[in-house]
Amino acid sequence: MITEFHDRMRGKVRECEGREVKPMAGIIDAQSVRAAATVPVASRGYDGGKKVPGRKRHIVTDCLGLLLVVAVTAANIGDRDAAEGLLTRLRRLHRDITLVWADGGYTGGLVDWCREKLALTLGIVKRTDDMTGFVVLPRRWVAERTFAWLMNSRRLARDDETLPASSEAMIQWSMITRMGRRLARTGRRRTSPTSPAAATRALSGTWPSSAPPRPSPASPEGQLHRDLLGLHRSLAR
Description:
Layout: H1 2-16, E1 25-34, E2 45-47, E3 52-61, E4 67-74, H2 79-93, E5 99-102, H3 109-118, E6 121-124, H4 140-151, H5 164-191, H6 196-204, H7 220-236
Parallel strand pairs: 1-5, 5-6
Antiparallel strand pairs: 1-3, 2-3, 3-4
Helix pairs in contact: 1-5, 1-7, 2-3
């Protein structure tokens, strides 16, 4: 239920940003996070490269940084190993995507495997030899920003979930919250006063209401509001 609601909100955000509902390209990346003591040994590991004990989050985002698919594994699982299952699921759920950008950790046989098995182009964005220190690389920064968004959620600062599936659900819920705020800001901009007379009424306190009107029940926004309310009630049980 959370996945379906998340995907519907993502389509709404893409529409508001002037994009097609279905994305055409994606960005893949992974992030290792520390795990709490409650996380079972069977689903945790040690990432020797990042020197992080815990779990690893593998995500594919669209070009806006919105989540397309997510998988949570032990931190000792390699990026390429997890990418095969993740990209297979991406290809099944988003048939229009034919290009995915990745960093140098996804090089090797995975590029040929994606082309032959999934008819998917895996574009590798690498650092050049003359780059020193922190450099913003094309496309890759989008997924890095998504990880930064997720880390703003206190529940995701580290992995406290017993099951990896619960971690994936918490990541989706964090993105739902962010997309909801994004849609609310868009609604406020659309209902804000535009004429000088309207602005004067708003500043003088004679404007009927500073909050945007409640969407009509028959509108897509009204359906989205009802779905969000139903999801909130189901999680509260």
